[in-house]
Structures are given as structure tokens and as C-alpha cells.
UniProtKB/TrEMBL annotation:
<keyword id="KW-0813">Transport</keyword>
<dbReference type="InterPro" id="IPR003593">
    <property type="entry name" value="AAA+_ATPase"/>
</dbReference>
<keyword id="KW-0472">Membrane</keyword>
<dbReference type="GO" id="GO:0006826">
    <property type="term" value="P:iron ion transport"/>
</dbReference>
<dbReference type="InterPro" id="IPR003439">
    <property type="entry name" value="ABC_transporter-like_ATP-bd"/>
</dbReference>
<protein>
    <submittedName>
        <fullName>Putative siderophore transport system ATP-binding protein YusV</fullName>
    </submittedName>
</protein>
<keyword id="KW-0406">Ion transport</keyword>
<keyword id="KW-1003">Cell membrane</keyword>
<dbReference type="GO" id="GO:0005524">
    <property type="term" value="F:ATP binding"/>
</dbReference>
<dbReference type="InterPro" id="IPR027417">
    <property type="entry name" value="P-loop_NTPase"/>
</dbReference>
<keyword id="KW-0408">Iron</keyword>
<dbReference type="InterPro" id="IPR051535">
    <property type="entry name" value="Siderophore_ABC-ATPase"/>
</dbReference>
<dbReference type="GO" id="GO:0005886">
    <property type="term" value="C:plasma membrane"/>
</dbReference>
<dbReference type="Pfam" id="PF00005">
    <property type="entry name" value="ABC_tran"/>
</dbReference>
<dbReference type="InterPro" id="IPR017871">
    <property type="entry name" value="ABC_transporter-like_CS"/>
</dbReference>
<keyword id="KW-0410">Iron transport</keyword>
<keyword id="KW-0067">ATP-binding</keyword>
Length: 265
């Protein structure tokens, strides 16, 4: 299987604190990969480094077989896009103006806004069901609409690989499913490689082809959720006891955490 991203002994740190230590993992091309792990384990840090927003202390990152640190910035931006957690748009920016920013990597002094740019922006707006809202101000949108607008911007960037840091944060359950369904559709229809951080284990299992569990700065396990998600992994990675059963709708692993609560016999 071809890989979109490969890391080799990747070490990431803030000041003298090591967050990720000699991590090796692979992102299959054309698949959905979800990073899971306890708070503070380095998932978001890893995602930022994959987008070249954080310089590694050591080790390498390969994007489509080429070392990402040695590639020109605009070249990287034409191959990989990232949506950080809870992005904020400048006040007074319309949806169209926001999505238009995704075409920046293709702009030069000689080539400014083109017909192709407009087509890509309109396609992204239609894919995310935001075309009818393109003249609305971003700060006037609901949480789900705002997140779709940001995803439209990353789509307009027209990259093969999209990174998303907790794209469902602060959204209610309906909008969480809406966003994840959209990303699943993008993968199915356009074969985009998607890497995202999710906290909900059950949604990760439902949508991911490949799950990467991070613990103690290393990959604890990676692979098909049906093969790696079990009671031992949940206990070791999240320090939580649980039962794992089969999701009655999708057949994917379903984590039922132990703990206190009402028990109806």
C-alpha cells in the first residue's frame, strides 16, 4: 500500500520537554487515518509537525516519498493542507473570502486570480453545502456551518492530503456526524487522504480505515480498528476499563466504558 506520509524516528519537543520520541508511523494514501490517545499525549503536536508548523528536534517526515523539510513552502501547500483546532476568521470576512484564501499557494506575481481558482472555490463550496451561504459573514454562522466553511477552504487548496485537528470540537452530536460524514464522502468520492485527531473512540472506529494510538510519545498500535481496538489498548492508552462490543449498525468496535452511573436491571 502506498503511503502519503511516513515518519522515521521523529522526535518533537517544546523547550527541553520531549513530546514525541523517535516515532515511526505511516499514513496510507487515499485512506482515513485517525490519531487517538489521552490528553497531552502529543496528537496535536504530531499533526502540526506533519504540516511543517513545528520543526522536529530530530528525525524525518516524508510527504509522498520526499522529505518535507527540504521542499519549498508553496510546493508543500499544494500537496498538504491543515485545519487547526478552533480556527478564527477575521471579523467581517465572508465565506467566499475565507474559502478564497485556500488558493494562495497557486498565486504568483504573474498569475493572480484565475478562472481555475474560481472553479476550485465554487467546487469546494458546493461539496460542503456552503455555496448558498458564500456571501454570509463567517462570524454569523452556526458552529457546524463555520466548520464546513473552514473545510471548504482546505478543499479549495486542492491538496491530496488533508490534516484536521479535532474537527468536531465544540459541536453537538448532529453536527459532529455531519462533519465526519462530509470528510468520509470526500475520501470516498475524491480519494483524499485524511488524517485527523478525534477524542471519540467510537466515532474514530466508525470512520477510520486506519487508527494510530499514541501513548508515552510513541505509537502504541496502528492498523484497522477492528484489529487493534480492544480492552487492553483502552486500558493501557487511556487508563480506563471498558467492554468492547460490535456496533449494531456498522459492525465496528464499540467501546463501553466502566464507571459509575444508573444501572437498570
Amino acid at each position: 500500500m502506498t503511503n502519503a506520509i511516513v515518519t522515521d524516528k521523529l522526535t518533537l519537543s517544546y523547550d527541553d520537554k520531549t513530546i514525541i520520541n523517535e516515532l515511526n508511523f505511516e499514513v496510507p494514501k487515499g485512506k482515513i487515518t485517525v490519531l487517538i490517545g489521552a490528553n497531552g499525549c502529543g496528537k496535536s503536536t504530531l499533526l502540526r509537525s506533519l504540516a511543517r508548523l513545528l520543526q522536529p528536534k530530530s528525525g524525518t517526515i516524508l510527504l509522498d516519498g520526499k522529505e518535507i523539510s527540504k521542499r519549498p513552502t508553496k510546493e508543500v501547500a499544494r500537496n498538504l493542507s491543515i485545519l487547526p483546532q478552533s480556527p478564527v476568521a477575521p471579523e467581517g470576512l465572508t465565506v467566499f473570502q475565507l474559502v478564497k484564501q485556500g488558493r494562495y499557494p497557486y498565486q504568483t506575481w504573474l498569475k493572480q486570480w484565475s478562472k481555475e481558482d474560481e472553479e476550485k472555490v465554487n467546487h469546494a463550496l458546493k461539496m460542503t453545502n456552503m455555496f448558498d451561504l458564500k456571501d454570509q459573514f463567517v462570524d454569523s454562522l452556526s458552529g457546524g456551518q463555520r466548520q464546513r466553511a473552514w473545510i471548504a477552504m482546505t478543499l479549495a487548496q486542492d491538496t491530496d492530503t488533508i490534516l484536521l485537528d479535532e474537527p468536531t470540537t465544540y459541536l453537538d452530536l448532529t453536527h459532529q456526524i455531519e462533519i465526519l460524514d462530509l470528510l468520509y464522502e470526500l475520501n470516498e468520492k475524491e480519494k483524499r487522504t485524511i488524517v485527523m485527531v478525534l477524542h471519540d473512540i467510537n466515532l474514530a472506529c466508525r470512520y477510520a480505515h486506519n487508527v494510530v494510538a499514541i501513548s508515552n510519545g510513541k505509537v502504541y498500535a496502528e492498523g484497522d480498528p477492528e484489529k487493534i481496538i480492544n480492552q487492553e489498548l483502552i486500558c493501557d492508552v487511556f487508563c480506563m476499563n471498558c467492554d468492547i462490543v460490535k456496533d449494531p449498525l456498522f459492525g465496528t468496535p464499540l467501546c463501553i466504558p466502566h464507571g459509575r452511573g444508573r444501572k437498570i436491571l
